[in-house]
Amino acid sequence: MKNLKKFMMLLLALVLFTSGSCSDDEDFMLPTITQTGENTFGCYIDGKLFYPRDGTGTLDGFSGAKGLQLTGTGTGPNYISHDLDVGNFQGGRPINFFVLHVHDLAQNEEGEYLFKVSNFEDGIDSPGYTHLYVRAYDYRSGGFKWYGSTENSGSVIISKYDIDNRILSGTFSGILTEEGGTNTVEITDGRFDINWSTLPDTKFP
Fold first, then answer.
1. Which of 96, 170, 93 has the alpha carbon at shortest distance from 133?
2. Whole-angstrom distance, CA of residue 205 vs CA of residue 202
3. pLDDT tens, 112-160?
4. What is the DSSP string of 188-203?
5. Using the 8-state DSSP alphabet, how is residue 53 labeled?
6. Fewer CB atoms < 10 Å away: N or C end of the chain?
């Protein structure tokens, strides 16, 4: 009887742990690829689902904020560059911060933008070309590390850039290399569909 009770308690704990650990991914699926300004974003990093989540306070020294933001450098709406900033401010895994810097979008509009070497900076501190960098959780060492694009290590395809309706949509993928190291992570099935008029009021719980 004692062993049966211990077994039942262990089974209950396992069920609670499993349901709790999977709840986030069960509540969120990779969004459908759309071009209608749905304010969606998602991708996989080494097979693990990443999506935006709002937060407050700080996470490992970084201030919590909106899970998904689109900013520009220059004079809008014809910015010299655009930054798609994505964060998971509720646990930070598998990615804490994600920054996609697209250069000359207003000039070149729709099409493929190849990644180049990231300097791990955004805005005016970013280089004059398209790149991607993330702060991802290293499940092997148990800590966060920075990973960035290298020359032709991936690309973003802008499928819609509609200034009149304020819609930016696209897909992306690539291999990112650890800052100062050789380890890599792979971004797959990336997609976003932004309406920058309604985005500030969109919640990412």
1. 96
2. 10
3. 999 999 999 999 999 999 999 999 999 999 999 999 999 999 999 999 9
4. EEEEEEEETTTGGG--
5. B
6. N
| 42-87: pLDDT as tens digits | 999 999 999 999 997 665 555 568 999 999 998 766 789 999 999 9
User: Domain check: are 56 and 112 in the same one?
Assistant: yes
Contact 31, 40 (CB under 8 A): yes
What's the pTM value of the predicted model, to 2 decimals?
A: 0.84
φ and ψ at 167, to 5 degrees?
-115, 135
Residues 96 and 1 in one domain: no
At 83, the amino acid letter reads D
Shared domain for 120 and 67, answered yes or no, is yes
User: Is there a single domain that holds both residue 100 and residue 21?
Assistant: no
* Better-predicted residue by pLDDT, 96 or 13: 96
Q: Are 155 and 125 in contact (CB under 8 A)?
A: no
Of 87, 90, 45, 42, the residue nearest 69 (C-alpha): 87
**What is Dmax (Cα atoms) for the chain?**
74
Q: Can you say how many angstroms the Cα of residue 56 is from the centroid of all Cα atoms in its chain?
A: 18
Task: Indicate if 106 and 162 belong to the same structural domain.
Answer: yes
Q: Are 102 and 84 a contacting pair, CB within 8 Å?
A: yes
Residue (of 86, 181, 180, 169) closest to 134 by Cα position: 86
The SS3 call for residue 135 is strand
Q: What are the residues facing 160 on neighbouring strands?
A: 169
Pair 8, 97 in one domain: no
Domain range for 119 = 31-201
